[in-house]
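=== RUN LOG ===
request id: a7f3
mode: sequence -> structure
chains: 1
length: 292
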Amino acid sequence: MRFVIVTGMSGAGKSTALRTLEDQGYFCVDNLPVLLIEKFAEISRDQNFKYDKVAVGIDIRSGKKLDDLSLVLANLKNDNFTYEILFLDANDSELVKRFKETRREHPLARGGRVEDGIAEERGRIAFLREIADYIVDTSGLLTRELKKEVKKLLAKGAAYSNMIVSIVSFGYKNGIPRDADLVFDVRFLPNPYYVDELKTCTGNDEAVRSYVMSSGEGEEFLSELYGMLEFLIPRFVENEGKHQLVVAIGCTGGRHRSVTIANLIHERLKALPYSVRVFHRDITMDTIIKGE
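=== RESULT ===
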């Protein structure tokens, strides 16, 4: 029996997570009253209960009864009942944006400011985030990406580290990504911009990749960077409690060298037990710019 409590911030994607689990064979119940959780847990482990995977949605809609959840969870543990907690989160600005786009009212806003409702909710459910088995920050995730993360964490039951690594290529002329945690400059590598037949290509093209990596320094840098990330990522998880890491790779314009290295490091990191994504922020920018 697998019993998962899906919780987190309003607007962070709990409904999507529950639908994803339901598609994977989970028996899902959303907004179950807190005082019924113990009874439902008892029913779910009865041998006549036909589902071996259950997910329960619990959030701020439980009102004041949410404060009783700590006691309920303690009772379940004392009764040797195993459960897991999936906590969906997002930064405040993203949550505000989502509520405004959907024209929904935050459950705690009471006709007031969305920001105030979010702040109150974050404080009231902080205890759940602290004890969660999995935390997914959905701030930069598309719906399909969130579904993928939920499947990796829970639906398939595979060994998986609760970390999303985003590799972002960019051009320095357009500024460093504001959400970058780590920034690496690859402007020391051979520049395809000065080769006529490569100027209008990108780092997604094999000819550009071969040119960028032709000096030998590219492979050495790639190896050193991979080793550094392999060392750093688990320590960010263990010591800083990070669940998302943005690694920015920059060249002058963000079309050739940074794209090449971002793609290559993405390929190598996929061998590690993390969810790894790659984005090329400036790849569609005008190529006829001096220096790139």
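=== NOTES ===
The mean pLDDT is 87.
The radius of gyration is 23 Å.
=== END ===
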